[in-house]
Amino acid sequence: MTVRGRVEQLLDEVTPLAPDPTLIGSLRAQLANPLTVALVGRVSAGKSTLLNALVGDRVAPTDRAECTKVAALYTEGNPQRVEVVGLDGTVTEIPGTMRGDLGRKPEDIDHAVVYTPSRLLRERFRVIDTPGLSGFTDTAEIATRRVFSGDGRLPRPDVILFLLDDAAGPKADEVQFLSDAGASAQNTILVISHADLIAADNPMLKAQEIARRVWRRFPAIAGAVVAVSGLMAEAGVCGVTERETAQISRRGLLEPWELLTILDGAAPPPPGLDVDLLGRLEELVGTYAMDAGADAARQGARAYCEWLHRVSGIDELRLAIGRRFLAVGDILKARTVLAELREAAYRSARRDVFLEAIEEAETAPELHRLREVAALEALARWQPDSDLIGELNLVVASRDVRLLLSLPPDAAPPQIADAAKERATDCRTRRAFVATSAEKEALLVLEQTYQLVRRGRWTA
Ligand SMILES: Nc1nc2c(ncn2[C@@H]2O[C@H](COP(=O)(O)OP(=O)(O)OP(=O)(O)O)[C@@H](O)[C@H]2O)c(=O)[nH]1
Ligand SMILES: [Mg+2]
């Protein structure tokens, strides 16, 4: 049986025990749907711009000023439309995207669901765009926290993309938020956003250096730290016209002082240079992409868009999402569903029976991978210098038992069983010599992993 199969079986078992009859149906849907990725970070960190870049369409409104007022789940659907779900549970539907009037005050809205045609949203992951943290009023932060607290009506995110718009890395309140939201190397990527603004010279390279530094400081709350210019990615993916590209090319022929005097109005623009359009391009691609991309712009819009796309860092982010999350999507979804079920169990009139069913599922061999991940998270958080982190990381990342056991590719099943048995015995012995409960639990989980490998029941 698969991870998903075992969780579906659990959902069947607890259906009569659930406090809310719609809960089990929505958890079933969550298992069947692609992963749910939430974009979080301070207000104006570039969340909606990054969403557009990922989806490949300007579906989410963006602005210099505080912009996204309600949490919105972007999911595949045709025709494009928005379902607005009130705090009172009532649903209204409006055509179009979040750019239109939602028909209610943001304070009265729990969330919106935006249906839009997109292959990424259908096949890879759905995205929740949040209003963000630390806005002018509390509204944005309250709406953002509701996404993670379980008090709201949106599906709980499986994965967090947290945007940092400060070269200094996450501040104490951001680390606290991530910790409260259960962020770990297994479910979170930090994004150094506005990478093109990080420095005057070579910003993208400096942003990558910052990303490496931040990752070394916070290995327990992020599986990767990636530097991205969402603005460049959005423009590269959604397209820049030939007319706009030609302006960037012309602008690149001017000396910096010439450009300044023209923009100040102290000198007339040369023929063909459209100062108003340059102003709009500043908003569309940013200054760095006009300065550094002038050569690419000389080769036309297509070459320029390719350059924007390549330099923006969006492919590195997509790759990190693919590597870290998509390959283990069912495990991440199973975790989210189990966490929701545990909360539901406490509201159930038959709490003990409910919890017992969950525990039985959690100890089932099919869901052993969840215990490996949980043991790794606990160690990373409480004992980041433990030697066992390397071994658990290997176990969690392994797809092949021979590689896991350092055996040759042609090792026969009896050889695998012997090696696994030896490892299991070794874990049991080592358990007597470690002092902390996190390491004891890790060794217990590892022992069970090797026992499952020995019996041929470990599902990579
Ligand atoms: N230069 C530059 N500007 C960016 C980048 N990403 C976003 N911006 C700009 O920053 C402003 C805020 O971007 P949004 O995407 O609206 O940010 P947000 O986090 O969704 O903001 P709220 O919805 O208000 O929380 C907009 O003017 C964007 O054009 C980036 O990578 N580089
Ligand atoms: Mg926004």
UniProtKB/TrEMBL annotation:
Gene3D superfamilies given in the database record: P-loop containing nucleotide triphosphate hydrolases
Keyword Membrane attributed: yes
Principal place of residence: membrane
Protein's cellular compartments: Membrane
Residues in G domain copies: 36-192
Coiled coil: none
Keyword Ribosomal protein: no
GO terms of molecular function: GTP binding; GTPase activity
Descriptive protein name: G domain-containing protein
GO CC aspect terms: membrane
InterPro entries: GTP-bd, Mitofusin_fam, P-loop_NTPase
Pfam family, one: MMR_HSR1
Keywords for the protein's UniProt record, in alphabetical order: GTP-binding, Hydrolase, Membrane, Nucleotide-binding
PANTHER family reported in the protein's UniProt record: SARCALUMENIN, TRANSMEMBRANE GTPASE FZO1
